[in-house]
Specification:
By secondary structure, the chain is an alpha/beta fold. It has two domains: 3-159 and 313-345, Quinone Oxidoreductase, Chain A, domain 1, CATH 3.90.180.10; 161-290, NAD(P)-binding Rossmann-like Domain (Rossmann fold, 3-Layer(aba) Sandwich). The chain is built from eleven helices and 17 strands. It has helices at 43-49, 99-102, 151-154, 160-170, 188-198, 212-218, 228-233, 251-255, 279-282, 296-309, 323-331; strands spanning 3-9, 18-24, 31-40, 66-73, 85-88, 91-93, 114-115, 134-138, 143-144, 178-182, 201-206, 222-225, 238-243, 258-266, 287-290, 315-318, 338-342. The strands form four sheets. Strands 3, 4, 5, 8, 9, 16 and 17 form a seven-stranded mixed beta sheet that branches. A six-stranded parallel beta sheet has the order 12-11-10-13-14-15, with helices on one face. It has a two-stranded antiparallel sheet with strand order 1-2. Strand 13, helix 8 and strand 14 (258-266) form a beta-alpha-beta unit. Helix 4 (160-170) packs across helix 10 (296-309). Its cofactor is Zn(2+). Keywords: Metal-binding, Oxidoreductase, Zinc. One of its GO terms (molecular function) is alcohol dehydrogenase (NADP+) activity.
Length: 348
C-alpha cells in the first residue's frame, strides 16, 4: 500500500504552492521512511518550479535539502535505524553499476541519477521532494546527520554544503592555500565557513561590502568587492576561486587573479554563456572548471566534517504559508542566507 503524505505542490510553471497530499511508495525491503522536519529552499527549486531550465514535471513537490528522523525501515535495512537523524540530498537513486557509481561519484552516474524531485524512477513514476512531511528513500541514498548539527541548519548542507565542500576538497584547499569565494549567498557563506575550517586563507569577492561583517564572522580573512580595480590589484593572488554566483562575470579579470596553476571553479550556473580568452589561462597554466554536488560517500564526509567544526547554514525558518514569498525574496537576494521550511506547518 502507498503512503499518503501532506505536501506543498505547485501545479504548473510559476503557479502558487498549494497544500495537498501525495502518494509515497510502499516501504520496500531496503527502504527508509523519513519523517521530514526541515526542507531547505535552493535556488534550483525556483528554476525548476518556474520551468526556467527546460521542461519540468508537474505537479511538482520541490526540495532536495531534507533533514529529519527515521520512523520506519524495511526488513533488509542495515544502515539506518528508527530514531536516527538523517538527511536526503539531491538524488535518491542511480544505476549503481557504471564507473562513476562504483567510484562513489553517483552524482555523475553515466545513465543519469534519479533526482529527488522533478525526475522519474526506473518504473516511470515521478519523484517528489522535501516540501512534504515524509519521504521514502533507499537506505543507500540516506545520510546520517551527526548529533553535533541541529536538523534545521543541517538541511541546507545536503545541497549547498556539499556543492561547496566537494570542489574545496578536490582542488586541495587547506593550510598554505589562498581561496577566493565569489559571492556570499546561500552557497558562498558555506564556502567561506568550510574553506576556513580546512585551513585556507579566505577572501570574499562580493558585489558590495554590505555583508562584510558576516563574511569576517564566518571565517574570511579578507573581504573585497569584485570591481575591476580590485581584481587588478589582486592579480596572481589565489590558488583557487570558487564562483558561487549565477550572474555573468568578467571571467578574464577573475582568471588573472589566479596564481600559477590556479583554478577557477564554477558552482553557480549563469544563464548566459561565459566568455574568456585562452591567453588568460596559458599565461600561468591556469584552469577553469565546474563542479557539481558530491557522491554519497563525500556527502557523508562533509556532514561529519561540519559537525566536527561546528558548521551549519545561516537560516531563516519559514512556514508553509511563506514559500511563495520566499521564492521572490531569493530571486531578489533578500535572504541571509538560506530559507528553511518547518514542515510541521504543511498539513492543513
Amino acid at each position: 500500500m502507498t503512503i499518503t503524505v501532506p505536501a506543498l505542490v505547485t501545479p504548473s510553471a510559476g503557479a502558487a504552492f498549494e497544500r495537498t497530499t501525495i502518494e509515497r511508495r510502499e516501504l520496500g525491503e531496503h527502504d527508509v521512511l523519513l519523517d521530514i522536519a526541515y526542507a531547505g529552499i535552493c535556488h534550483s527549486d525556483i528554476h525548476q518550479a518556474r520551468e526556467e531550465w527546460g521542461a519540468s514535471i508537474f505537479p511538482m513537490v520541490p526540495g532536495h535539502e531534507i533533514a529529519g528522523v527515521v520512523s520506519a525501515v524495511g526488513a533488509g535495512v542495515t544502515k539506518h535505524s528508527v530514531g536516527d537523524r538523517v538527511g536526503v540530498g539531491c538524488f535518491v537513486d542511480s544505476c549503481r553499476e557504471c564507473r562513476s557509481c562504483l567510484a562513489g561519484e553517483e552524482q555523475f552516474c553515466e545513465r543519469g541519477n534519479v533526482a529527488t524531485y522533478n525526475s522519474r524512477y526506473a518504473d516511470g513514476s515521478p519523484t517528489y521532494g522535501g516540501y512534504s512531511t515524509q519521504i521514502v528513500v533507499d537506505e543507500s541514498y540516506v545520510l546520517a546527520i551527526p548529533d553535533g548539527i541541529s536538523l534545521d541548519v543541517a538541511a541546507p548542507l545536503l545541497c549547498a554544503g556539499i556543492t561547496t565542500y566537494s570542489p574545496l576538497r578536490h582542488w586541495g584547499a587547506g593550510p598554505g592555500t589562498k581561496v577566493a569565494v565569489v559571492g556570499m549567498g546561500g552557497l558562498g557563506h558555506l564556502a567561506v565557513k568550510i574553506a576556513h575550517a580546512l585551513g585556507a586563507e579566505v577572501t570574499v569577492l562580493s558585489h558590495t561590502l554590505s555583508k562584510k561583517d558576516d563574511g569576517l564572522r564566518f571565517g574570511a580573512d579578507h573581504y573585497e568587492t569584485g570591481d575591476r580595480d580590485t581584481l587588478r590589484r589582486l592579480r596572481g593572488s589565489f590558488d583557487l576561486i570558487i564562483n558561487t554566483v549565477s550572474a555573468d562575470l568578467p571571467v578574464d579579470a577573475y582568471l588573472r587573479t589566479l596564481a600559477l596553476d590556479g583554478t577557477m571553479v564554477f558552482v553557480g550556473a549563469p544563464e548566459n554563456k561565459q566568455q574568456f580568452a585562452v591567453f588568460s589561462l596559458i599565461g600561468a597554466r591556469r584552469s577553469i572548471a565546474g563542479s557539481n554536488i558530491g557522491g554519497i560517500r563525500e556527502t557523508q564526509e562533509m556532514l561529519d566534517f561540519c559537525a566536527q567544526h561546528g558548521i551549519g547554514a545561516e537560516i531563516e525558518t519559514i512556514t508553509a504559508d511563506d514559500v511563495d514569498k520566499a521564492y521572490d525574496r531569493v530571486v531578489g537576494s533578500d535572504v541571509r542566507y538560506r530559507f528553511v521550511i518547518d514542515t510541521a506547518t504543511i498539513p492543513a
